[in-house]
Write a structure and sequence with these properties.
Helices cover about 40% and strands about 15% of the residues. The protein is an alpha+beta fold. A hairpin with a 3-residue loop joins strand 6 and strand 7.
Length: about 230
């Protein structure tokens, strides 16, 4: 397996960097519990954090240089893909009359958006939000206020799993634009599972934005309503 990873190339289905990190993470995980099998899906958040960061498993000296080279190659490729996808959507410009406003807007979008978002820009924009509840100035996982959640602390594995269970993907343009403009949770940025998730703070099982309301119904789930 080690030889296959080292000889992998850019035409592989999976990035060599991810295969390399996955092999290291699995080897270390199994070695730390020699008499216990993998527990899925409970072990997935820990393994993801070791494969995608920030808790990378240290690589042997012989392969660390390759890991750094692969990481740099992925970064360069993502930048190129992001630029190409955005450029396809731009209107044709008259070369004799350059439109600096459009070019400036393109540069701003490339700077503010992440590589994963840019790579999927040809599809309808979407965003993942975690439905949380606020009461008396405190945040809770559920409307009954029995399970508080501290947004200022890095979530552990159990809390991360609970937040993801309360997350949904929205593609309605009004709500996508609304949540894109909302601040991220700094404590979530170190989590590979939550770094792109925005909190949707509900009051009384709903959140209102202009003429729109996002409501959480116990039977129907998330409802997007226009008032």
């Amino acid at each position: 397996m080690k030889a296959a990873l080292i000889s992998a190339n850019r035409n592989s289905f999976y990035e060599p960097l991810l295969l390399h990190n996955t092999a290291l993470a699995l080897k270390r995980h199994v070695a730390s519990r020699p008499n216990q099998p993998l527990h899925l899906p409970d072990d997935i958040p820990v393994l993801m954090s070791q494969v995608y960061g920030p808790d990378f498993v240290p690589a042997p000296p012989a392969t660390e240089a390759k890991r750094q080279a692969w990481a740099q190659a992925i970064h360069a490729e993502n930048q190129l893909i992001g630029f190409t996808v955005h450029a396809v959507a731009l209107p044709q410009l008259d070369p004799t009359q350059p439109d600096s406003r459009l070019l400036t807007k393109l540069a701003e979008r490339l700077d503010e958006e992440t590589a994963p978002a840019a790579m999927t820009r040809l599809a309808r924009p979407s965003i993942t939000v975690a439905l949380l509840h606020e009461s008396n100035g405190r945040m809770y996982l559920d409307a009954d206020g029995r399970r508080p959640v501290d947004l200022s602390a890095k979530p552990d594995t159990a809390t991360t799993r609970d937040i993801l269970k309360r997350s949904v993907v929205l593609s309605h343009p009004e709500w996508v634009n609304y949540f894109k403009g909302r601040p991220s949770v700094p404590a979530w940025e170190a989590s590979p599972q939550l770094k792109f998730v925005k909190p949707a703070i509900l009051h009384g099982n709903s959140l209102q934005h202009g003429q729109y309301r996002l409501a959480l119904d116990p039977e129907l789930g998330v409802l997007l309503q226009r008032l």
